[in-house]
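Sorry, explain these tokens?

***
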Amino acid sequence: MDWRDIPSLAALKAFEATARLSSFSAAARELNVTHAAISQHVRALEAEFGCELVFRQGAGMGLTDAGRSLALSLGEGFATIASGVRDIRALRHDRPLIVGMTPTFAENWLMPRIGGFWTQHPDIEVTLQPSFAVVDMRRDGLDLTIRYGHGIWPGLDVELLVNANYVVVGAPELAAKAVGASMRDLCSFPWVFETNRLEQRVWAQEVGLDLSATSVSNVPTNSLVLSAARAGVGLSIQARALVEGDLAKGNLMCLHEAPLSSLGYYLVTRRVPRSDALKTFIRWLKTAAG
């Protein structure tokens, strides 16, 4: 790369901020410089390129075709630089690990176990970010996400943590009426689902449960789903790993269990060097999953 062909980085930063924020003043505030300094940088770029990059638009400003092209390139370039910086900083042992997963997985699988990790590794700080939203690992600064699905996420490193061997469960009194019933027959029973929980609904479709033909009660958390199921309000679809205790105690009965498939919870990381702390946490997760 010949740096003599590249304008001042300060000028490029000033223009990128101006284009992104559509304001000289906002760019000046973000970069902690004066309005005049931003204007001077933009004018210098226009002089160097021999074309206009911005134009006045009422009380604001707009971008010329050349300005839009440059803004796009700079945005992508600075994002790549920022990503590289985050990746290097992520290798520091003393920074918290940022781990994303669904709230359901966090509440029912991870939280009952993670105390063991903190006991064994008190020097490793882990920040959990439960969310139903699909996250961008680079943008959100995540070191690891635990995702549910078939394990197909191009461009990321993916490793199965635990098969989501889902079962249909119900309280003994309700389940006794459904012993031996097919999934089609189970459509006539009341059901309880967690609002917006993707896992249960995907699995229901896989095993042939027609949700449009069932009476469904939706509640906000899986803890409430389990409470309702134990109380006999309706049948529920749960990962077997989450209800082993209830099945052993007789609080719930298993009515249906589908064969294992590729559906499961997967460890997902970006294709960048892993810190020692992340390697340790992933090893612990695998051990905890058995």
